[in-house]
Structures are given as C-alpha cells and as structure tokens.
Design goal:
It contains four helices and six strands.
Length: about 160
Amino acid sequence: MSDPRIIAIDLDEKTIIWRNADVEQERRVAIFDLLEANHFRPLRAYPQDYAGPYRVKLRVEEGRLAIDVNAESGELLETLILGLGSFRRPIKDYFAICDSYFAAIRTSTAQQIETVDMARRGIHNDAAQLLKERLENKIDVDFDTARRLFTLICVLHIRG
C-alpha cells in the first residue's frame, strides 16, 4: 500500500547557526503545515516495495542540501544530494523580503504590509517551483510541499 507523505521532518540542528523569534515561528509553521498536508513520493524503488510514509531529515553538507529519506521505522532508504548553487539567489532574496516583511508588521500600514507580503509570496512561489524542478525524477512533491520545504531550506542557511 502506498502512503506518499512525510510524517516527520527534522532539520540538522548543527547546520542552524542562529535564528530569531520570527525565524523560529516560520520554522514551526512550515513544519506544522507540512505535516498536516503534503505529497512526497520518492521515485526510486525501495526494498519490499516500500512506498511511505516517510521520515525526512534536511541538512547542509559541504554546501549541498542532503535529504535523508527514511521509512516510518527510521530505516534510511536513501540520501538525495542537491547542489544549492541555483538556490543562492532565491534564498538571499527571500531573506531580504522577510526582513522587510517583519519590519513592516511592526511599523507599517496594512496596505504596506500587504504589498510586501505579496512580494514575499512571489519570491517564495518562484523558489518552490525551482525546488520542484530540481527534485524532478527524484521525488514527486506538490507545490505546497515544495513551498514548505523551501522555507525549511532557508532556515538551514541562516547566519547570525
């Protein structure tokens, strides 16, 4: 029986150097939303035709994203490695717009906040589409899952 979803996701805490309350909230919301509803179907055949659910760990190793895909039991099924070069600009842009968004929440009008939030969503959506493309032929994910995974990838890149 197939159950193509993530039931647990962890970030390598050694990779995360620093985070503030806003970032921590983004991380919590992304994980909560991801676990509530996601589609995550690795395309490689696993032993005993295992097809989910999955426990996933994200980490950065030598400048590359490592995605550990584990069975529900915790058994490692595979580790996917993605180069992060194509994500450098979207991550940088996302950090910049998030800083503007968090500042706007504290000091701006509702219309100004909405404008910044629309820009933030646009950058986030473009990055999610890029992630979907980079995972093509490796893992089938839906758009919302890709958006939440991108948020978590950003958390792994925060520097104090």
